[in-house]
Design brief:
285 residues, four-stranded antiparallel beta sheet, binds adenosine-5'-triphosphate
Length: 285
């Protein structure tokens, strides 16, 4: 097991934002973390990235507690893409991607930088300055920089990506998730990606972890997690789940919308029916 999270608690401004969270992530797995706004997804990711202090529990990576990794060693194996990265200084796309490989001579880093610019479809922008790029272009450049950091790492690699496709058009979203899946399957990367798009998650994730009020509501394979009752209870979303021929679920919101769900006493988000069905975050099955 590459990443082992046990009883994790993170407090912000004196309040528990992530509570009693436990899950594991293996090499070669793509785990998508879902949940409503404010559920604690970014806080979890920042905790795993070492940006937030861990108040309770333990996180170990490749068998060693996170706090015991040296900054230098973990930087070779863990790459993090935050939810928002704004580049306001006049660096070119190529220079930004190269920031992922700060200690390497130019001749050595250029093949990786070029490969990643191709993969993220930003090679045609290589001499453009970052502040003039569109939101989606900026996001693809940042993802290329993040991947450059661990591209040819030896040994275990963990990618922590916070809504890394939120600004992308549907085709680029598919390309990026398909790339992440390939990196997991072919290179053994462990990928934890926070996302809001349920269908993208269902299509590409090996497993989903649904956060609600800082706790794991349910985790498991997409079909186990994405049920009508779960979506109604966690998001207040009325939706149909269709099983596609390809074998993964498709979430189709109903016309009656969230207001209708909230109007229904049996599905209103009262404390009793928003309590996690699976507080210890066991597998759904
Ligand atoms: N630095 C902070 N200090 C105090 N509270 C914070 C801080 N950062 C986040 N929070 C609060 O913690 C809760 C979880 O925030 P977080 O950003 O983890 O949510 P999220 O699930 O990523 O949401 P979104 O889908 O909107 O990005 C929210 O209620 C937020 O207001």
């Amino acid at each position: 097991m590459l990443l082992h999270v046990d009883g994790l608690g993170i407090h912000l401004a004196g309040k528990p934002v992530v509570r009693d969270l436990g899950f594991q992530l293996d090499a070669g797995e793509l785990l998508v973390v879902l949940g409503p706004n404010g559920a604690g997804k970014s806080t979890l990711l920042k905790g795993l990235a070492g940006e937030h202090k861990i108040a309770d529990g333990q996180v170990s990576f490749a068998g060693c507690t996170l706090q015991h990794w040296s900054k230098r060693e973990i930087a070779k194996r863990r790459a993090v893409m935050p939810q928002r990265v704004e580049v306001n200084f006049p660096l070119t796309v190529e220079e930004i991607v190269r920031l992922g490989r700060p200690v390497e001579p130019l001749s050595q880093s250029m093949p990786v930088v070029s490969e990643l610019m191709d993969l993220l479809d930003v090679a045609h922008l290589r001499y453009r300055l970052a502040p003039g790029l569109s939101g989606g272009e900026q996001q693809r450049v940042q993802l290329a920089r993040v991947l450059a950091q661990v591209w040819d790492a030896q040994g275990p690699v963990l990618l922590l990506l916070d809504e890394c496709t939120s600004a992308l058009d549907p085709a680029h979203q598919q390309q990026v998730f398909s790339l992440l899946r390939r990196l997991a399957k072919q290179r053994g990367f462990a990928v934890l990606a926070v996302a809001h798009d349920l269908n993208l998650a269902a299509r590409f994730a090996d497993r989903l972890l649904l956060l609600h009020h800082g706790q794991c509501y349910i985790s498991g394979k997409p079909f186990e997690v994405l049920s009508e009752t779960v979506l109604a209870a966690v998001y207040g979303l009325s939706a149909r789940i269709i099983k596609l021929e390809e074998g993964y679920p498709l979430v189709v919101p109903r016309d009656d919308g969230p207001e209708a769900v909230y109007a229904s006493p049996s599905l209103s988000p009262s404390p009793s029916n928003t309590a996690p069905v699976n507080p210890s975050c066991r597998q759904a099955s």
